[in-house]
Design a protein that fits this description.
homodimer, DNA-binding, mainly alpha, 6 helices, two-stranded antiparallel sheet
Amino acid sequence: MGAIKIGELAARTGTSAPTIRYYEQIGLLRRPERQERGQRVYAGDDVERLTFIRRCREFDFSIDQVRALTALVQDPRSSCTDARDLAATHLSAVRAKMRELKALERSLVQFVKTCDTACAGGPGPDCVVLGDLGKSCGCGVGVR
Amino acid sequence: MGAIKIGELAARTGTSAPTIRYYEQIGLLRRPERQERGQRVYAGDDVERLTFIRRCREFDFSIDQVRALTALVQDPRSSCTDARDLAATHLSAVRAKMRELKALERSLVQFVKTCDTACAGGPGPDCVVLGDLGKSCGCGVGVR
DNA sequence: GTAGACCTTCAAGTAACTTGAGGGTCAAGG
DNA sequence: CCTTGACCCTCAAGTTACTTGAAGGTCTAC
């Protein structure tokens, strides 16, 4: 596994070449060596590092959080609990987002249901639901 | 309810003045009349329209979807079922997002749990979890 | 000799706002 | 009379995490 070019690194890590260049630009990925022709050449641990980054991104960690996590991994003085705490914080954010979406789902279900029963395909301006949306709100829709 | 200025419109609709100016700029809100001094003056139906828009945004409709919905409301030829269909489409997107978050939540819980049992506060470079994240993946974390 | 598959750079576009700079108007308080 | 604070205005740039586009170089295969 000698000279990995950007296309192969992208394929191996489920990224795209522009994204890799972008990560390099913002300092998330180190600047790799270059061939005579200027092409980037990567090594095995670049695959590892980028895999780590992508996995964190799949976990919806922000770039800044990923930066913190990679720093954690590389810093010998840091403890695993630091990473755990970061993950725990992130977990509660994810759960909050889910609660929001759950409420949103209920509202939308109600919206669709009201459309079906109250309006039954009537014309736009007479639609109860759409009209109510702009007012103080009947119809159970728009509850935060 | 005669002359509503931008600050009051913002307060009444849970928006900010810059956001209102932004909506005007992108053509989501009509250009209001102006006082001699150039200040925007709004009327009652602007409150209604902006309330409608904000409520849609709370429902996570994109600006483009809101545009479509407001067009629907104003077009006499449109039917309520069009709005219903838009909402239904949106609903399934919301549900897909929730499934993703659910999977994400499970992974994070696993991550935190592994941190607690396997590493127990050991130093960063020796951390099993963080190390594994960059590899093919043990520890149940990183499962898509 | 040219078509296709790679690679390079830099700049601008995306969503939905927010923030900042720089300035004007008006009423109340000292 | 002057300043302070609360409003309002415009225009430009910043935010997040990339993606897309323009314009070009290199190499292999047919």
